[in-house]
Amino acid sequence: MKDKPLAGRTAIVTGAAQGIGAACAQALAAAGAAVVVADLNGDAAQQTAASIAAATGASAFAAAVDVADAAQCRALIDDAASRHNGVDILVNCAAVVAMKPALDLTLDDWQRIFSVGVYGAFACAQAFARQVVARHGNGAIVNISSITAHHSAHGRTAYAASKAALDSMTRSLALEWAEHRIRVNAVAPSHTATDRLKQAIQAGQLEYDTIVQRIPLGRFAEPAEIADAVVFLASDQARFITGQVLAVDGGYTANGGWLPMKTGMERG
Ligand SMILES: NC(=O)c1ccc[n+]([C@@H]2O[C@H](COP(=O)([O-])OP(=O)(O)OC[C@H]3O[C@@H](n4cnc5c(N)ncnc54)[C@H](O)[C@@H]3O)[C@@H](O)[C@H]2O)c1
User: Whose CA is nearest to atom 15 of ligand 1?
Assistant: First the structure.
C-alpha cells in the first residue's frame, strides 16, 4: 500500500472520541485523510482531534453530534462537505450497549441501541451518499459491526440484533449505491482492548483468560488492528470490494469449538 493512500480525501468517523473510533480516525489521518472526529461527547472529541492532529500532522476537526438525530447527521455531513469540498469516507462507529439479561430488556433499551447503532448509521450514510451523488464523486462507507451479530453472547440480545441489522443494511446499501460509485462494507471485530474493555476486565465483569481460550490467535485485538482493516476497506486497494462484512477476530468465528484432535487419529 502507498505511504499516504488517502491523501486528499476527507473522512468522518462517528463515535470517534475514544476506543475503536478514535483508532480509526488516527489511522485514517496517518494514511493522509483529513478527519472529522464526531461524537456525542464534544469535549472528548476535541481532545482526540487535537492529539490526532499533533501525532499525524493531518487536519483533524471535532464535531459534537448525536447520530440518533437525523438532522444532526445531515448537518455533520453538510458542514464537513462544504469545509473540505466533499466527504469521501464515512466510518459509522458510534454504538451503545446494554449488557442485560433478556428477561430485563426494555423497549427503551431496544430503541436506544437501534437508534444509535442502526438508524444513526443509516442517517449518516444517507446524508453522506446524497452529497457524493450531488458532486458525482466516489465514496466509501465502513460500518463497525461485531462478531456478536452471528455469534451470540449472554446479555447482548438487543446489541447483537442491532449488529445483524447493520450487516444486512451494509449489503442493501452496497447494492443500491454501487451505481453511484459508493462502496459499503463492514468490519466485525471480536473483543478489542479498548480502555472500556480493560476496565470491565479489571472490574471482574469479563474473564480475559476464559475468553482468549476461544480465540485461535490467543489474545484480544488492539484498536489499531481494527483500524487497519477500516483503512484498507476505505482505500482504493479495496476498489472491487463492496457489500462485505470482514471479521477481524483472531480466528474467533472460524473456531467451531471442537476439541483439539488427539494424536494417533490419522488415517492412512
Ligand atoms: N470494544 C470491543 O470489544 C468491540 C467489539 C466488537 C464491536 N465493537 C464495536 O466497535 C464500535 C466502537 O466500540 P468501542 O468499544 O470503541 O466503544 P466505546 O463505548 O469506547 O466508544 C463509543 C463512542 O461512541 C460515542 N457515542 C455513543 N452514542 C453516540 C451517539 N448517539 N452519537 C455519537 N456518538 C455516540 C461515545 O461517546 C463513545 O465515544 C462500536 O460500534 C462497537 O459496537 C466493539
Answer: 19
